[in-house]
Design brief:
3 domains, Serine Threonine Protein Phosphatase 5, Tetratricopeptide repeat, three-stranded antiparallel beta sheet, five-stranded antiparallel beta sheet
Length: 272
């Protein structure tokens, strides 16, 4: 990790503070077992950083306290609080490297025999746009290794990683395989995702596939309503909206569909 921007390797350290009128020197020592500063030796110093302390805080702390503030997923400010003093320093880690290194180690243990762990590792890399080549291998292991399981989620993740790597043909083929394993709500969600990506024609194909696979049931007609509306066929969209209204499972969906029917009847596309 980085302490005030300076590298400190993983390990156990003794922690000393040299106090001056307007600054403090924080010292990390390789001697982590000595009691207090009685046995402090400068030769054992591994890292020294200088920070500015705050003095005369309004409330006194009787017991030494360490406070973690300004926290993000990769950094925090650590403050030593004691009596009327606050001595802060920043700690930062290379989140992507630390997580990927740990994932790599864990996947070589018994955790590597569970397909969800390979998928989760690949998902982290995809979400953080890092280590994508290896992530593609991890995604493949989540699908096709002897412990892999073929699901819409695992195949579609593999396709998204291929897409990020510029392997568009392979991504399209993988996505076709994903659709074979998709459940009704997965197809519906994917269709809506495609509309959001400004791919209305492909989205309509997915909604039609959902109808072919799952028939006249919720939320098939909701998807068709959205697909036809996105492609400009408002008449068809209105037909499916009315069918969907009769199948709506709750008042929230009924209210939403009633608003969509009103919008379509006025000759306007619905919000996607």
């Amino acid at each position: 990790m980085l302490i005030e921007g300076k590298a400190l390797a993983a390990g156990n350290y003794g922690f000393f503070i040299a106090v001056y009128p307007d600054s403090c020197t924080l010292i990390f020592s390789k001697n982590s077992t000595a009691w207090g500063s009685f046995f402090y030796e400068p030769a054992d110093n591994v890292l020294q950083v200088t920070v500015c302390q705050q003095k005369d805080l309004p409330s006194s702390r009787e017991w030494l306290h360490y406070e973690f503030s300004a926290q993000t997923d990769r950094s925090a400010t650590v403050s030593l609080l004691w009596e009327h003093w606050r001595i802060p320093f920043t700690v930062r880690v290379d989140l992507k490297k630390v997580v990927v290194d740990n994932l790599r180690r864990e996947l070589e243990t018994d955790k590597g025999f569970v397909f969800e762990n390979w998928v989760a590792a690949a998902q982290f890399c995809y979400d953080h746009d890092t280590n994508l080549e290896e992530a593609l291998t991890w995604a493949e292991n989540g699908v096709n290794s002897f412990f892999g399981v073929k699901t819409f989620a695992s195949y579609s993740l593999k396709a998204k990683i291929q897409e990020k790597l510029g392997k568009k043909t392979e991504a399209a083929e993988t996505m076709k395989l994903a659709l074979d394993y998709a459940a009704i709500f997965e197809l519906h969600g994917y269709g809506r995702q495609l509309i959001g990506q400004k791919k209305p024609k492909v989205a309509l194909e997915v909604f039609l596939l959902n109808q072919k696979k799952n028939g006249d049931t919720w939320p098939v007609h909701v998807g068709l309503m959205r697909g036809y509306s996105a492609t400009g066929d408002l008449k068809k969209a209105l037909e499916h909206a009315k069918i969907a209204l009769g199948q709506a499972p709750d008042d929230v969906n009924k209210s939403s569909l009633e608003a969509s029917i009103k919008t379509l009847a006025e000759g306007k596309s619905i919000a996607q």
